[in-house]
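dumping the sequnces here before i forget
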Amino acid sequence: MSAPLSPAPVVVPPAPGSNPVAGTEEPLPLWRKALSPLSSLRLTVVLLAFSVLVVFFGTLAQTEDGLYLAQNRYFRSWFSTWSPLTEGWRWIVIPLPGGYLLGTLLLTNLVAAHATRFKFTWKKSGILLSHLGVVLLLVGQLFTDMLARESRMTFSEGEWRNYSEDFTASELAILSDAPDNGMAEVVAIPEGRLRAGEIIRQERLPFTVRVSQWLPNSEPIFRAPRATNGPPQSSSPVSKRFDFISVAETHKMDEKNIPTVLIELMDTGGKSLGSWALSVWSGDPAMAKSARTSWYRRFNRGDTSGDDSQARMMAGQLHAFLTEDQTVTVNNRTYTLALRPRRYYQPFTLQLLKTTHEVYRGTDIPKNFQSRVLIDHPARGERREVNIYMNNPLRHGGLTYFQYQMGRDEFFSTPVAHSVLQVVQNPSWLTPYIGCALVAGGLLVQFGIHLVQFVRRRVTT
Amino acid sequence: MEFRRLLSLALIALASLAWQGCKREEVQVYQAPKDLPPPNPAMADAPQATGAPAPVKAAEPQSPPWVTPDGWMAVPSNGGMRLASYAIQGSDGRTASVSVVPLGPEASGELDNVNRWRRELQLAPITAAEAESLRQPVKIGSMDARMFELVSDQNVLDGKFKSRTLVSMLAVEQATIFFKLMGEDALVAENKPKFIAWLKSVQVGANERSEPAAPPASASGPSMAGAVAPPPSTDLPKWTPPATWKPVAGNAMRLASFAIPGDGGAVGDLSVVALGAQAGGVVANVTRWRRQLELPPMDENELSSSLKSLPTAQGEKALLVELEGTAGHAGSNLLAAIVQRPDRTWFYKLTGPKALVTAERDNFQKFVQSVTYP
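..and the predicted 3d for all of it:
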């Protein structure tokens, strides 16, 4: 009888931080002791498990919160909570770590493991390379999160743009003629500062801005002359014709919040210069046009005469009222006030020359959206025409322009085509590619080393 | 030790990034090129931000009688003297503008005009002979015309740029039309070929027909024909309702509603509605009311003669109509007044039991007469 095969002796690695041969070596330095708990493989597993949970709950939450809010709540946060969407079960609150916390801990865990346990040998070079790739992915994502910016450029055929606009954030822009060069001087107050009670001073402004009310989402209601009208919201002209009422915030992907801010301006002596109702409905031409189209349809509803000129005229007039300049003159200088999507200016100009919108024959399924644009970049002496279409973005000046949307303003009997480009600025856009390449290369190297060792051992035996 | 240093650096970098992400958003101050107005087709859409009057009928874009060069952006004329205006933007904030202005025949004096343009460029006046020597022949449409080109000596634009003016004029029967391009020197020089081509594209006949008797209706071009109405006022008219009438909430269509108590708990309903100037016409509306009360239709003459006229406080007239319901509407009466004004047609309509409407007839007429419109 042959003796049963006994399993090979298992070599238990020393616990992190413990001294393998107690009493024979110097005690560990303090920094290693401190890092030891953080380098645990168990911690890695727990963190990865939590990551799976956060991705799961974050994805579920998108159905109610929409993409952007869910991203902010679950992934761009340190802590979050999730509750079931079903009424009656909402009392259940599950605390979750946020994406920042998990990323930071995973990174610390990996770095600490290398600091305390890993020793560089050529045999483990593949693992080291893969881990370097993982570090790059984690850090690159953090940089992307901090530095990347997505915005949009909306223009009609023939129009120029030298700026793009934020998808969600707005700003209170106070514009005046720059003293000496024909440009506009802009004081841009980000919407984060536009909270009720906030008082904003800026040395370039001869007045103080006091925020009376911030409506994160609003609707313009025409103040038809009616005996039951309340007092106007502000002393600005737009308030003679419109009230901006607060409506519930939306988180849907195909809807957006249109904010309004009510402000009062005070001169240096503290005297009120008046109050203004400023809305993105007025400050964003695209929103004003959409309101005009909506009014036009409403006025034209039920009219079977085929003559829509009255509806056009009335909608056009409402549009004119809505977009009337709101100004204040102080010390002989006129300032125009507007709440508008936050702008990011570029040192070059794009002009939309032509839009092409093709669908598959007999269907409404888009086949090709294409914008032909003229780039005018005087500092580089560059002036050229390019086509931007699906999967063929324009990369220029550190920005990437993707074809995003296309439409026609049906208000005109000869509709005016417009195009929306998504403008992405991401200085660390290469890091995921390099990170993934390092991970893949590291794994290949490691498997290669093992394969060679295995083959050699077989040859030897 | 090396590793510790690297770790410290990495932690500091992460902390600073986190701080950057968390810090309060700051107010930014910067200079940017001024926004350009939308291009030509979009400008034709009724009044833009200026709140300028809108054409009542012709809200459609109208083509100007010339070919607008690429890169020229139509801007609103603000209801002023200009038939059309265009803005030209250079790549680095330099600007130029194009205007078409009709002036009376007395404005055709060449020397006065040339010296006026020279004054704008801070240049000294010149003599008639010198002005004559500056003439450059051009074509406006098919007609021979002259053009003047003037350049400032100094940097008169913001103290940085020289200014250049190109101007040509065309005398028509009762007016002289000036076509002028002025702005930053190099930009205007660059646009000179376009300007000359533009002049040549002018349909002279079209201009002559569209004699500048009134300011343009919109920025789309020299559309001088067509009725121009002021935008409807959104202010409420002033009125004095009888003390017994109670203002009540109306609906989206109504400007005001009153509940009018009668005998035996009856309540009459008075509505005030303002519609566009046309509003379907008096006959169509009265016919509609008759139909609502199941009254037989009347022909236009018959119906018009049935209306009574009532003078209002502002010297206008209100057309009064009183209808008595039949069949299922027996006992119901309608008393209405229609006031047609240039911008809107006002409808005052009282409905209720016959006795109530009859009793309130005087009050109703006094109310309609008392209204003063903004």
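Chain A has two domains: 30-148+431-460, 150-425.
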